[in-house]
Amino acid sequence: MAHEGKRIRKARKTVDRNMVYSIDDAVKLLKQSATTKFDETVEIAMNLGVDPRHADQMVRGVVNLPNGSGRSVRVAVFAKGDKADEAKKAGADIVGAEELAEDVQKGKIDFDRCIATPDMMPLVGKLGKVLGPRNLMPNPKVGTVTADVTEAVKGAKGGAVEFRVEKEGILHAGVGKASFSEDALIANIKAFADAVSKAKPTGVKGTYVKRVAISSTMGPGVKIEPSSLMAV
Q1: Which of the residue ranges 27-36, 125-134, 171-180 would you say has the lowest mean pLDDT?
Q2: Cα–Cα distance list, 24 to 56, 131, 186 (Å)
Q3: Which bin fits 14, alpha (ψ -120 to 50), beta or left (φ > 0)?
Q4: For the whole model, what pTM was predicted?
Q5: Rounded to an integer, what distance in angstroms lies between the CA atom of residue 151 and that of residue 139?
Q6: Ramachandran category for residue 79: left, alpha or beta (phi over 0 → left; psi -120 to 50 → alpha)
Q7: Distance from C-alpha of 213 to C-alpha of 20, rounded to nearest angstrom
């Protein structure tokens, strides 16, 4: 553990906390400082000039990362009949209806993403108290309430990342792994920033994207110049 602390201190020294880097330099630094034995997750944090307490300033959406997220995603689908068969064929890990709802109600949640066909929403709607706080509630705005379960499952498995601004106007998401090439990470980060930019609410006045930083699981935060990011 002493060695681990030394490594983290060394990585932090390579990053100037007060410096704002271009996207290219930021990714280079991040990869240099991600030196643990496991493949660290790369996360982006964006400070937005919004107040999510106001409905017209909520930022929410989904983005398909061009190079995938690098993580193994377990997908649950609420569906019946042909749609349930379709979901299984598309690679869903868990498929069900009433029995799946019972499991969720008991707190048995063995999945990272939840999809539902529209006819299942009266059933799924009752699970809001359990799924909502975990950000797993299916929603048509992010494509997780849909009749096209094949597309939704493949998207979730292939790198579709949901985002939703938290209080204080901060938004976090995983955008890849430290083992990805610099080009792959840059493409993912730019695609994510572009999606957030397009999700700008009409009620926002002033600067929308205030600050952006990326970090790996154990590495220091690296600030990015928003303009180098938004020129997608």
Answers
A1: 27-36
A2: 34, 37, 7
A3: alpha
A4: 0.75
A5: 15
A6: beta
A7: 9
**Which residues on adjacent β-strands are paired with residue 212?**
46, 224
Instruction: Check residue 3 and give left, alpha or beta (phi > 0: left; psi -120 to 50: alpha).
Output: alpha
28's enclosing H/E stretch is: helix 23-33
Whose tokens are 């201190």? That residue is: 9
Q: Encoding tokens for residue 153? A: 């499952």
CB 90 within 8 A of CB 160: no
Write out the two tokens for 118: 């529209």
Cα 84 to Cα 95: distance, rounded to the nearest angstrom: 6
Q: Rounded to whole angstroms, how far apart are CA atoms 14 and 62?
A: 33
DSSP 8-state secondary structure symbol assigned to residue 40: P
In the predicted structure, residue 177 carries a pLDDT above the cut 90: yes
Backbone Cα Rg of the chain: 19
